[in-house]
Specification:
alpha+beta
C-alpha cells in the first residue's frame, strides 16, 4: 500500500501551482482587474457578456499553464461557448511568436490515460517481480571436512503459500492504484471546461490546460458567440 500511495501521489497528484502570473495591462482600460482570495483575475465585458481569466503555472501530468475561465451571460439571448476554439500564443525572449497547445477535456483525458498506463505498467512489473521472489528463501550452513577445512552449503527453499499471499497482496495493490487513477480522472473531468450553451442570467466557470513553454507574454483568445476576448499574461 505504501508503494501504491507514493506512486499515485508522485505521478498523479503532483499538481504544484508554482505561482500566479502577473498581468501586463496597466494601459488597457478595457480590462478590469480584481483579486479573489489573493488570486488576480482579468475581466472583459463586451456586448453584455463578461469573460474573466486567471492563470497559473502547474505540474499536472506535465508542465502546463492552467487558465481558469469565468463566463457570465447578462444579455437577453443564449450564447455558445466552445472550448475547441480557445487558442494561446506565446511571445519568446527573441520576440518570436509560438502557438501553444490548448488541451480540450478529451485531449487532456487521453494524455492522463497514457501517463497512467505507463505508471500501471511500471508498478505492475515491480510488484510482479517482488511477488515472484516472495516464496524463495536461502539458508547457509557451515560444515567441516575430515581434514578440518570449513565449507558452506547454500540451500534455497520455496514456500508456495508465501508466493500466493504475495500475489494476492500485489493484485489488491494494483486494484487500489487503478481505482485511485480512475477517481483522479473523474475529478479532473468535472472541473474541465466543455462545450456549453449559456442562457441569459447564467454563468459557467472551469479550467483548461495549456502546454507550457518558456517565454515572456502569453496571450489567450477566448471566442464566445463570435466575439473574441483576449487576455495577456506575463509568464516569465
Amino acid at each position: 500500500m505504501k508503494k501504491a500511495n507514493l506512486i499515485i501521489l508522485f505521478l498523479l497528484w503532483s499538481i504544484a501551482c508554482y505561482s500566479q502570473t502577473i498581468d501586463q495591462v496597466e494601459n488597457d482600460t478595457t480590462v478590469i482587474t480584481e483579486y479573489n482570495d489573493g488570486v488576480l483575475w482579468l475581466y472583459r465585458d463586451i456586448e453584455n457578456v463578461t469573460v474573466g481569466t486567471t492563470c497559473y503555472k502547474i505540474k499536472d501530468y506535465g508542465k502546463h499553464y492552467q487558465i481558469h475561465i469565468y463566463i457570465y451571460n447578462h444579455s437577453d439571448t443564449s450564447l455558445l461557448f466552445d472550448p475547441t476554439k480557445v487558442s494561446a500564443y506565446l511571445t519568446t525572449k527573441t520576440a518570436d511568436t509560438l502557438q501553444l497547445q490548448v488541451y480540450t477535456n478529451e485531449m487532456f483525458q487521453r494524455k492522463v490515460r497514457r501517463s497512467q498506463t505507463w505508471a500501471m505498467a511500471l508498478y505492475g512489473f515491480s510488484t510482479g517481480l517482488s511477488a515472484g521472489m516472495a516464496g524463495y528463501s536461502t539458508s547457509y550452513s557451515t560444515t567441516y571436512s575430515p581434514n578440518g577445512l570449513p565449507y558452506t552449503t547454500v540451500t534455497q527453499h520455496y514456500d508456495a503459500n508465501a508466493t500466493l499471499q504475495a500475489n494476492m497482496a500485489a493484485s489488491h495493490q494494483m486494484q487500489t492504484l487503478g481505482n485511485m487513477m480512475e477517481n483522479d480522472r473523474e475529478v479532473k473531468e468535472q472541473g474541465y471546461m466543455k462545450i456549453n450553451t449559456i442562457h441569459p442570467g447564467e454563468c459557467i466557470i472551469g479550467y483548461m490546460n495549456i502546454k507550457r513553454k518558456k517565454g515572456t507574454i502569453m496571450t489567450v483568445f477566448i471566442p464566445v458567440n463570435g466575439v473574441v476576448y483576449s487576455f495577456d499574461w506575463d509568464v516569465r
